[in-house]
Design brief:
heterodimer; A: 122 residues; alpha/beta; B: 727 residues; alpha+beta; 5-stranded antiparallel beta sheet
Chain lengths: 122, 727
């Protein structure tokens, strides 16, 4: 436990839900409302995992993912795409962009926590 | 009417043939007559010629014989005395057998007065003829005895010593000769030389011999100085034979001594059948000619034999007649035929003219436009309908180039159609044209090639139909169609936009719902803090409503994806048995809550090539419906088996409320739940079956239901199970 998770979501409620849920499970959670904020936080302290919303204002989640995966320093961070884009091909696009996993919203809280824990263990 | 036509019509008149036949018969008859006359004339001429010839031959021969006798007289005149021997030599010299046929002999008869008869007899007996005597016996005033008759043999021996003067016929001739000093011919006698056989009539010629040196100018002197006669006996048949030979050229003749009356005077009959008494004797030609002889007149009756005119010659007029009649009949036949042919031709021409009139009436009044064109594509004939369509007068069009009024841009069509007509015999075209009054019209034209019996191109027909109204309707229809297509495009576009909108909306809707469901679950987990029972119950209600809303949004999203064409099928090989177990595992708890059992039967099939996600979704929808619409404690059966080789058949059977027959169609429609009451009781989106149907059909499968209201339903899905990737 004590792993650092960065939750990126432009929707403050969803950001809060995911953050509070994970904090209640004992994770150290940082919250970012957009890509810029996320990059700043990553620059300050490297998270172990990023729960990345795709539909962000400005730079979207996919672009941010590509950017992070292109950077040597941030390449090792596990990125889970967490999006309500449930259209066919969405998952494919996120994987291509460099995401390590894909979870569509809304998600069962228990399942989200279980998946994150598993990702961190591996 | 020209002269020639007048002549021809006259020639073709039926009376003409008969008239010509009559005329030609007349001509033939005349020709026959002329020919006949010619033949007769020629025969007559020939007859005259031949008879003259015979006549001349007899005269000539008489003169010749007379000359022979004159020679004998000359012998006496030149000598003191003519001995038997000398006479013999003289006659022998003449060679009468060769040169003078018909002459029986040449003799000398000496005058013996009664007082010198005895001496005379003795003298001749002394010459070596002891039996010599003058005969016949009897006492006469004067005697004449044949003492020489050469050739002195055979028949002539019988005349030796004969006194010709004792016989009246001879007597007359002898007296005449002695008294006139001229040659004299006797009448008809029977010569003493005649034997029992072949008795011929005969005659004799006498020449007087007077004593040398004595005058014999007067009758007295001649009687006084008379010595005897040099004479010749003639057997008349032999004589005539010598004269004529055998060639009498079909002419018979009878020689009469004197009047030609009877057998008495008949001297000679060339065919020995004297017909003078025969009343049926009517020779074709005959003539009687007198022949003046010394002291006598012969009459010769010439007549033709039965076939004087030779067969060939006689048949000449017949040939003319028969040939002429044949030619006449032929001519008649030809002219009559000409007339008949002319009549037939006239009838045919009239019939054709009538047919043509009918045809032209039909053409003129036809509803369609009809024209005939010459090989140069010029109007030959135009009917009223055609003229009405194009607006020109019929007379204006004749001779003009076809077509008279066509849009310039349609000329290529016209040329193509004309070429096709030439090649194939028929062509059609639809072209527009300008009416003479300036209005536009459309015509449907059929071109038909016209050929003569040798299949040579002689022109064409063009059948025209005014299709302006149809064309206008067609154009309106086309415009309408275009508009409809455009509308359809708009509708499709709108539909797509709606689907895109729905897809976006569902995403936007899910985001807040994520918060609702997420926080509700978070609170219910009691991690944020403890809850009293009421709070926990209400959180459960919120969660249930949120999940329902989420499912609704998911279904809408799926339908929108399918409708907007964004739903893709990704077939892969998977185990359908496992898939069924998974779905049953998800729905198992709900079923158990209702005391229901789910039974699965999978036979002879496991791995299939299908989109596994959609397979699960289909089964999930059907099975959740079955559980939802079943009474508590009932059973649901899921079965899967191969079907028709390539397909799988999935059945979900329940013992639920069932569906009325009339509602079967409706259940697959969107947003439909059959029973409003049931809808209230059974929570659902009303999209489940519609979506299921779309998913099945997206994979080219089919779905159906067999249901009995109140007893249960069986949903059957048939899917192609080995679709290839990418389809």
């Amino acid at each position: 436990m004590g792993n650092r998770i960065l939750v990126v979501d432009d929707n403050p409620i969803n950001l809060k839900l995911a953050g509070d849920l994970l904090e209640s499970e004992g994770f150290k959670v940082q919250r970012a409302g957009d890509a810029e904020q996320a990059m700043e936080l990553i620059g300050r302290s490297r998270p172990d995992l990023i729960l990345m919303d795709i539909g962000l204002p400005g730079m979207d989640g996919l672009a941010l993912t590509r950017k992070l995966k292109a950077d040597e320093a941030t390449r090792g961070i596990t990125i889970i795409a967490f999006t309500s884009f449930a259209m066919k091909g969405d998952e494919q696009r996120t994987i291509e962009a460099g995401c390590d996993a894909y979870i569509s919203k809304p998600v069962d809280a228990g399942r989200l926590v279980a998946q994150i824990s598993e990702m961190l263990r591996s | 009417m020209t002269m020639r036509n007048k002549f021809l019509s006259l020639l073709h008149h039926p009376i003409t043939a008969w008239a010509i036949l009559l005329c030609s018969f007349l001509l033939t008859w005349i020709a026959w007559r002329i020919s006949n006359q010619f033949v007769i004339q020629r025969a007559s001429d020939r007859f005259t010629f031949h008879t003259d010839d015979i006549q001349a031959a007899i005269s000539r021969r008489m003169i010749e014989y007379e000359e022979v006798l004159r020679g004998g007289v000359g012998l006496f005149v030149a000598s003191e005395k003519v001995t038997r021997q000398e006479w013999h030599q003289y006659v022998q010299t003449l060679q009468i057998d060769d040169y003078y046929p018909g002459i029986q002999g040449i003799g000398f008869s000496i005058f013996v007065p009664p007082e010198g008869k005895k001496d005379h007899t003795l003298k001749i007996r002394a010459e070596g003829f002891p039996n010599y005597k003058i005969w016949p016996e009897g006492v006469r005033s004067e005697y004449h005895s044949i003492i020489y008759l050469e050739p002195f043999q055979e028949r002539n021996l019988r005349a030796f010593g004969y006194d010709m003067y004792s016989e009246p016929v001879r007597h007359a001739a002898m007296t005449r000769a002695r008294d006139t000093g001229l040659p004299s011919i006797s009448g008809i006698v029977t010569l003493v030389q005649e034997t029992e056989t072949d008795i011929q009539k005969g005659f004799l010629m006498y020449l007087p011999v007077y004593r040398n040196g004595e005058p014999h100018e007067t009758l007295e002197e001649r009687r006084r100085s008379f010595v005897g006669f040099v004479y010749s006996p003639f057997r008349v048949k032999d004589f005539m034979h010598g004269v004529l030979g055998t060639a009498t050229a079909g002419i018979d003749f009878e020689i009469f001594d004197g009047e030609p009356s009877n057998q008495e005077t008949l001297l000679y009959d060339s065919n020995e059948t004297f017909q003078g008494d025969d009343p049926h004797h009517h020779p074709q030609f005959s003539r009687i000619l007198p022949l003046q002889l010394k002291g006598r007149e012969w009459r010769i009756y010439y007549h033709t034999g039965p076939r004087y005119i030779a067969q060939a010659e006689a048949s000449q007029p017949l040939v003319v007649a028969v040939g002429g009649v044949l030619v006449d009949l032929l001519l008649f036949y030809i002219i009559a035929s000409l007339g008949k042919i002319q009549k037939k031709a006239t009838i045919m021409a009239e019939e054709m003219a009538a047919a043509a009139r009918e045809k032209s009436v039909a053409l003129e009044n036809a509803v369609e436009g009809i024209v005939s064109l010459d090989p140069q594509r010029r109007y030959l004939d135009v009917n009223r309908a055609y003229a009405d369509i194009v607006g020109y007068l019929q007379s204006e069009m004749i001779g003009k180039k076809w077509p008279i009024s066509v849009f310039p841009e349609d000329y290529p069509k016209v040329e193509a159609a004309y070429r096709e007509m030439l090649a194939k015999g028929r062509a059609e075209m639809e072209v527009g044209g300008k009416h003479k009054d300036g209005s536009i019209f459309y015509q449907h034209a059929v071109l038909v090639r016209s050929s003569d019996p040798q299949n040579a191109f002689v022109g064409s027909y063009c059948f025209l139909k005014d299709i302006t109204e149809r064309k206008i309707l067609q154009e309106q229809l086309q415009r309408k169609n275009k508009e409809l297509e455009e509308q359809n495009r708009q509708v499709l576009k709108a539909s797509r936009l709606k689907s895109e909108f729905l897809a976006n909306m569902s995403h936007e809707l899910r985001t807040p719902l994520n918060g609702v469901i997420g926080f509700t679950e978070f609170l219910r987990s009691k991690k944020p803090g403890p809850l009293n029972p009421k709070q926990e119950e209400y959180l459960g209600d919120i969660l249930s409503s949120g999940r329902h809303l989420l499912r609704l949004i998911n279904d809408i999203l799926d339908l929108a994806k399918i409708e907007s064409g964004k739903m893709e099928v990704s077939p892969e090989t998977f185990s359908c048995r496992e898939a069924i177990n998974e779905v049953c595992a998800v729905l198992g708890p709900i079923a158990r809550k209702k005391g229901m059992t789910i039974e699965t039967k999978v036979a002879d099939v496991d791995r299939v090539i299908l989109d596994p996600r959609k397979f699960r979704q289909i089964l999930y929808n059907l099975l959740s419906n079955a559980v939802k619409f079943s009474h508590e404690g009932s059973a649901v059966e899921v079965s899967l088996r191969p079907y028709n080789g390539n397909e799988i058949r999935l059945e979900v059977k329940d013992q639920g409320i069932g569906i009325k027959q009339e509602d079967v169609e409706a259940i697959f429609a969107k947003f439909t739940q059959i029973d409003s009451g049931a809808a209230r009781y059974y929570e659902g989106t009303g999209l489940g079956l519609a979506l299921t149907k779309e998913l099945v059909e997206l994979q080219r499968g089919s779905i159906g239901v067999d249901s009995e209201f109140g007893k249960g339903s069986t949903f059957t899905v048939i899917l192609p199970a080995n679709l290839e990737r990418g389809i």
